[in-house]
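Assemble and predict.
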Amino acid sequence: GFIHKGNEFTVSTGNGDTINGDALLLATGFDLFKSERKEEYGYGIYENVITSADLEAMFRKKEVKLVSGKKPERIGFLHCVGSRDEKVGNIYCSKLCCVTAVKQAIEVKKIFPASKVFCFYMDMRMGGALYEELYKEAQEKYSVGFIRGKVSEVAVNINNRLVAKVEDTLVGRPLKMELDMLVLMAGMEMSEDAVRLAKETNLQMGENRFFKPADHHFGTNMGNVNGVFYAGACTAPLNITETISHARSAVTEIVNYLNTGRK
Amino acid sequence: GFIHKGNEFTVSTGNGDTINGDALLLATGFDLFKSERKEEYGYGIYENVITSADLEAMFRKKEVKLVSGKKPERIGFLHCVGSRDEKVGNIYCSKLCCVTAVKQAIEVKKIFPASKVFCFYMDMRMGGALYEELYKEAQEKYSVGFIRGKVSEVAVNINNRLVAKVEDTLVGRPLKMELDMLVLMAGMEMSEDAVRLAKETNLQMGENRFFKPADHHFGTNMGNVNGVFYAGACTAPLNITETISHARSAVTEIVNYLNTGRK
């Protein structure tokens, strides 16, 4: 936490030191939605139901494989896990999961060119420079299948394969799809540490529990406490490019505050 | 245009003055896609086919009406006009048209509560703080109809009503819908002035003809010419919030350049 007296902030660090400052920049980031909460998708219950973060770790270790050690032949990506879902209290779109799914689908196809890869989505939200191009490449060059529909439930069949029940809204009928691996595209939530910090101090959280900006357009780096600034995904789901831009914007705001804004 | 000599820039203004500077910030904005180019939608051909900008002007004047002076009873919003459309050379998503359509649909329903309002979309791209909430409100509170499908053609029938041919991809069959007014959600393109500027100077344009950033993540404010900086929608489609953040980020980059970056 931090102590705020007059115009000065005192922050206690983990090792017991204290640091004083004239302004405070919070860049507390985000937590991934805990996929266990969507029990119907079987994360933590069925082998080979993994999260996008788990798959990313596999990419880094160059070990993309099933728990059995075999290579996956049919891989599904399930969008909107913990996003756009009132049942878990997250009405907002995490915005980055769609492009992450497309990126990961292409990477899987590069590793296993003979595999079948499917994305289950509600809307493909490829709003960002070169995102649409990537989506097109996934379809045309890598033959990733895009199925517009919600997965309602995941089970395991007698062959120990995952079975996803899908309502394909474009074809208008329910599907059962066998998969070897299902990747849950976990959304972004305000980090637990930041929630605790907000509760301990007077920092306000907004409707989706991210830090509430002073103004949605003009004041996204500023909070309700004079001298406290925000950068990055503690204010809303942001991609890397937006986060860097937002952090540089915070620098401008802080310099401005130090020059003229202190009360 | 501008002249770049050593570390100095000289800019000629419209009234014949010249201004010297140590760095140059370009904030040339965007042009709206010219909807006449999609002849099949009938802009400039049929009365009451208007653009989102035209409707915005009607809102400002508080005069939303048909050419006949009557009030519209059935209004359609057509997404992705000039965006995600290879035929016009724009593969990218303009990202803001979806939320603008929802905003305008709600405004129309507030003015004409008895009217029927429809949005024709490919994917609803509501990636932004409180966008999803607005989308939900449009459905639940204002009964805006969302039809997932491309409009292939607009004509006029014997009653002088617009007829939109729509492939409703969720129902899987073609529709003909009568409308009094059709609003084309025109996308964003690099401004013509900025294209000319890029051609006159050595500024590079990227794949979608926006200014090419030095790096897609770390260098979105910087171009290929040392001392030239970019802010806003001349680099990519950006909303107001993102534009403000990007502009403040440019300030940080320019100060950094003036302190240490000049060669």
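The two ends of chain A are 22 Å apart (CA to CA).
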